[in-house]
Amino acid sequence: MFLERFRDGVDRHHMIERGDCVVVAVSGGVDSMVLLHALHEFGGDLGCDLIVAHLDHGLRPSSADDAQFVARAAASLGLSCVCERMDVMALAKVRRSGIEETAREARRAFLSRVADTQSATRIALGHTADDQAETVLFRLARGTGWKGIGAMAPTSGRLIRPLLSATRSEVRQFAAERGIVWREDETNADLRFTRNRIRERVLPELAILNPDVVRAISRAAELARGSADVERCLLDRLWPDLCFAEAAGSVRLSRAALADLPYAVQAVVLREAMRRTRGDLQGLGQAHIAAAQRLASGAADRRRLDLPRVRIATSPTTVEFLGGRRDEACDWATSLTLGRTTLGEAGLIVDLAFSPRGDGVPPGDSASPRGENPWMEVADADCIRFPLVARGRRAGDRFAPLGLGKEVRLKSFLINAHVPRERRDRLALVCDQDKVVWIAGVRLSDAVKLRDSTERVLVLRAEEVEPWESSSSC
């Protein structure tokens, strides 16, 4: 039964065509080993070639043994295997990003590189229905829309997920029946990682309410993905009546026609206008769309809004979108006070609070030291000239990175810190009257670091708004 459903899913979603070359991502865990054996069993019928790919993240002492295990498994099936090692921990520190995020990006880049080198047409991933449910819950907890709830699709570009309709228990049962050997990753029990907490704590509680909760959440994700087709149909019908004029880098909408639409439909239209103006939605989130809605409705106390790579202006009859240059995308500023402040232009919520001097980590955050969480920092409040403002980067900005002890050109620092170019345009710089205090999510200034003499601590936190277009986990 398992193999029949596996083959049915491959055929139904047109995952593999005859003659395809498929890179199979194999970690050595049960999911990827079952994926490898199932694809190998059907390889002849499917008329495809398989290449095994394994990335050693260097996060565990036993990771080198995993790589050898995968290489032997590939050889036993007569398949070639590409193994590579990467120090993900070091890379995460350089990028000032989370280990899970860094590992995922490194894995994607590795698999893409192998596929390009081997002229592969598909990359097969071992995600199961349980992985889908965990992804949906994680995105719901952070705040997301329908696209985020849609989570992982069976096919996405050249990525395919043949096990997405199978639960983890079904995969393990098949492995036991076939005598498939796998390796357990001990970090899967480490509750410091968000996905593990969802797997070990949240899903078991939900299973008390519904024993089939994994499939129920997966069905919801499938229905959410279908909303994209509904949205496209809706836009095709509405756009001719809403759009006054459209040219390269500009869109002009009827303000009255937009106001007649339900609030949720307005958001869809505004997002589409931004996409057509900019050519993509990279760096735009729900906070940006909400800011655009306030402007269009007249609720904002201004008639112009500068967002990353798009400028929105209103007149009594129109809402106009103009594509902005990268330097224009950064021209914004918002005053900060204690508590939470939404930065629509950066897609962030910033939270500021004072704390008595302790060990540098406020109570309740001891499990997440700031070295592992780039979105939280603590600073010497007496070294800050209040009030604070959050703004985009500007030409000539200088910054004293923590640990360096001297000012450098901000542009040079961002390049050396390997901050991606597309991210630089939506960075939020928290500044006092003299200097850049914190590049949210990147680095604190050395000028405000904690000292022995520190008496008042300023706790700075930032929270990303879920992007409208998110990439699936890999």
Report on the architecture of this protein.
The protein has 474 residues and is of the alpha+beta class. The chain folds into 3 domains: 2-225, 3-Layer(aba) Sandwich (Rossmann fold); 248-328, Uridine Diphospho-n-acetylenolpyruvylglucosamine Reductase, domain 3, CATH 3.30.465; 332-464, Phenylalanyl-tRNA Synthetase, Chain B, domain 3 (3-Layer(bba) Sandwich). The chain has 16 helices and 22 strands. A 6-stranded mixed sheet has the order 3-2-1-4-6-5, with helices on both faces. β19 (429-431) and β20 form a beta hairpin. The two termini are 27 Å apart.
Major beta sheet summary: 6 strands, mixed
Going by CATH, the architecture of the largest domain would be 3-Layer(aba) Sandwich
Which whole number gives the mean pLDDT?
86
CATH structural class of the largest domain: Alpha Beta
CATH topology of the largest domain: Rossmann fold
Secondary structure: helix percent: 40-55%
Descriptive tags:
single chain; 474 residues; alpha+beta; Rossmann fold; Uridine Diphospho-n-acetylenolpyruvylglucosamine Reductase, domain 3; Phenylalanyl-tRNA Synthetase, Chain B, domain 3; 3 domains; 6-stranded mixed β-sheet; 5-stranded antiparallel β-sheet; 16 helices; globular; disordered C terminus
